[in-house]
């Protein structure tokens, strides 16, 4: 039986890519695919990185850590590739610890037994309409999957400016064995945070541990 497509994310393609970005997708991206990489556990994952602003911040702040970004939206992947390469399409030294999974992260986790010190999920699509809530990424089922990929003392860090979605996530956490805390973070800036489509005062953050 053919596997049913996971319908959590919206569209996978936006406007047509520039010639340079198309070249990067064809020539650079295949060489930084994280499939099969081995680490000493010193690894960070960001799920749904948008244009990759926070992925790059993580790489700069953690130069000796492997950073894996997962994003199914082709234009976001291309934007990150463009930002982390020079005019000759070579990866800048400060971003050589970044690997990109250009698809649904669940497909990566299913086939790679890897542990992470941190798993970041910032501003996932809240799917605010009632009929779409089943598409929300951070269900109890998915949180349980992530918990299996945490290293000892590892943590899942979640941020959203959609407060109803935040409350929904907290209810999902109660259906897992994860322990939740509510940090007083400064706002972590990303493209989606700046859009603040929910119109709230500030994002809310959540840290989950086994």
SSE blueprint:
Elements: H1 19-27, E1 43-47, H2 53-61, E2 66-70, H3 74-83, E3 98-101, H4 105-111, E4 116-122, H5 140-147, E5 150-160, H6 163-173, E6 179-181, H7 191-195, E7 204-209
Parallel strand pairs: 1-2, 1-4, 2-3, 4-5
Antiparallel strand pairs: 5-7, 6-7
Helix pairs in contact: 1-3
Give an overview in words.
This protein has about 210 residues and is of the alpha/beta class. It has helices spanning about 20-25, 55-60, 75-85, 105-110, 140-145, 165-175, 190-195, and strands spanning about 45, 65-70, 100, 115-120, 150-160, 180, 205-210. It has a 7-stranded mixed β-sheet with strand order 3-2-1-4-5-7-6. Strand 4, helix 5 (about 140-145) and strand 5 (about 150-160) form a beta-alpha-beta unit. Helix 1 (about 20-25) crosses helix 3 (about 75-85). The model is unreliable at about 1-5 (pLDDT under 50).
Uncertain spans, ≥5 residues at pLDDT below 50?
1-6
Shape: globular
* Number of helices, counting only DSSP H or I runs of 4 residues or more: 7
Structural class: alpha/beta
**What profile does the largest beta sheet have?**
7 strands, mixed
Write out key terms for the chains shown.
alpha/beta, single chain, 7 helices, disordered N terminus, 210 residues
Can I get a quick summary?
With 210 residues, the chain is α/β, with parallel strands linked by helices. It is built from seven helices and seven strands, in the order H-E-H-E-H-E-H-E-H-E-H-E-H-E. It has helices at residues 19-27, 53-61, 74-83, 105-111, 140-147, 163-173, 191-195; strands at residues 43-47, 66-70, 98-101, 116-122, 150-160, 179-181, 204-209.
């Amino acid at each position: 039986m053919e596997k049913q497509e996971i319908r959590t994310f919206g569209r996978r393609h936006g406007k047509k890519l520039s010639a340079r970005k198309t070249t990067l997708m064809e020539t650079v991206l295949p060489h930084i695919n994280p499939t099969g990489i081995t680490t000493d556990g010193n690894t960070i994952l960001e799920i749904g990185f948008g244009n990759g602003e926070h992925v790059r911040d993580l790489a700069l702040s953690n130069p000796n850590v492997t950073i894996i970004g997962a994003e199914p939206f082709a234009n976001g992947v291309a934007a990150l590739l463009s930002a982390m390469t020079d005019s000759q399409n070579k990866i800048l030294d400060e971003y050589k610890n970044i690997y990109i999974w250009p698809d649904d992260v669940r497909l990566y986790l299913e086939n790679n037994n890897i542990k992470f010190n941190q798993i970041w999920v910032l501003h996932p699509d809240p799917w605010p309409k009632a009929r779409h809530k089943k598409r929300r990424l951070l269900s109890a089922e998915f949180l349980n999957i992530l918990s299996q990929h945490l290293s000892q003392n590892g943590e899942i860090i979640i941020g959203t400016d959609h407060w109803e979605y935040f409350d929904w996530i907290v209810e999902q956490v109660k259906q897992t064995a994860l322990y939740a805390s509510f940090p007083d973070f400064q706002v972590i800036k990303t493209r989606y945070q700046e859009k603040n489509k929910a119109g709230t005062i500030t994002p809310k953050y959540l840290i989950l541990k086994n």
